[in-house]
Amino acid sequence: MTLPRIHILALGGTIATAPDASGAMQMGLGADDLVAAVPLLARLADIRAETVSRVGSHSLSFDQIHALAQKIMSLDVDGVVVTQGTDTLEETSFLLDLLVERDIPVIVTAAMRNPALTSPDGPGNLLAAVRVACDGWVKVHAKALGVVVVMLDEIYAASDVLKIHPTRLNAFASPQTGPLAVLVEERVVPLSLPVRAPVEAARKRLGGAPEGREQPVALLWLGLDEPGYILEAMVDHRDQLGYRGVVVGAMGGGHVPERVASLVGQLAEIIPTVVSPRAGGGPLLRQTYGGPSSEIALRKAGLIWGGRLNPLKARVLLQTCLRAGLDRSAIAEVFDVFG
Ligand code: GLU
Asked: Disulfide check for 272: which of 53, 59, 245, 296 has CB 3.0–4.6 Å away?
């Protein structure tokens, strides 16, 4: 029986760390080391392992993930597993989901507990990811699933998964939708298929992986009584600051403190500015509250409505739209489909 060809691309992260002389963990391991730690992999798949980088995911760049997407597009294999750090996994997996057009399983996994600890989760997560990549239901639905994240025996859609805890083992969840499937014994047990219409509509507008250059997007998370000094600086010195777009982590269903409402409106006039729920995701209101800092006023003022994407994912989407050269109204249409 020929085994499925699964290509592992290793980027770094806790899963790839080893202690240095002082005992501090450094990104020392490559893809071959990760595979060597899980002998069972050879029984499941014809494994090819490639070290792409040894970088903590907190330091990965958009350019690196664009290059990774290109690589995934070029591989002649039956499935791809990316290993990386957990810190930005919710962002990189969503970016890959926007960029990679394949009908094979593409899976991202990582580890919360490093290999020097008594019970590291990296080997188990890698084994689970390869199992998922080889699974019949996953293969048949690869396009319908898009890029998925496998952590702690659960499978999540890249557009929904969030890192919800900085250290504990069960640090990942899809609070809005729940997991797509779970691993039990050696089986993948399907639970649901994701609603892909918003991502597919976005991908159509993006027209494949955009060639353009980095388009920095600022993320402004608004808190109680925010005085708006950063907003003021962005309005007054937009060209010096270099940002090409802004995501506002707004309160509740899409509100900002009244004292910054007019600044937010001015910002939206000069730069694509997306409102996204600081509550972590979920559809925003559109037509319930009145007053100068309400969703009705902000939408009238030209703010782009971010839908159910949480601010980190909205930032990834806005940056990708800008890189593809989309203008404000095209960007608003892309976000509109997200609810
Ligand atoms: N900060 C590192 C990273 O994201 C390690 C954290 C982790 O992998 O969990 O790559």
From this structure: 245
Residues 159, 63 share a domain:
yes
Per-residue model confidence as pLDDT tens digits over 47-88: 999 999 999 999 999 999 999 999 999 999 999 999 999 999
Give the total number of structural domains in the chain.
2
Single residue among 167, 194, 221 that ends a domain in this structure: 194
Task: Indicate if 159 and 66 belong to the same structural domain.
Answer: yes
Cβ–ligand 1 contact at 265 (below 6 Å): no
- Judge if the beta carbon of residue 89 lies within 6 A of ligand 1: no
CA dihedral for 183, 192, 276, 94, sign (positive or negative): positive
Nearest-CA residue for ligand 1 atom 3 is 85
CATH of the domain at 276: 3.40.50.40
**CATH code of 79's domain:** 3.40.50.1170
Q: Are residues 218 and 302 located together in one domain of the fold?
A: yes
Report the phi/psi class of residue 280: left, alpha or beta, with left for phi > 0 and alpha for psi in -120 to 50. left
- Ligand 1 neighbourhood includes 160 CB (under 6 angstroms): no
- pLDDT, one tens digit per residue, over 91-124 is 999 999 999 999 999 999 999 999 999 999 999 9
Residue 209 has pLDDT above 80, yes or no: no
Find, among 202, 216, 196, 238, the residue nearest to 330 by Cα: 202
For residues 267 and 269, what is the distance between their CA atoms, to the nearest angstrom?
Answer: 5
pTM of the model: 0.97
Percent of the residues in the chain that have a pLDDT greater than 90, as a whole number = 95
Please give the Cα distance from 197 to 206 (Å, whole number).
Answer: 14
pLDDT at 210 over 80: no
For residue 126, give its domain range: 5-194
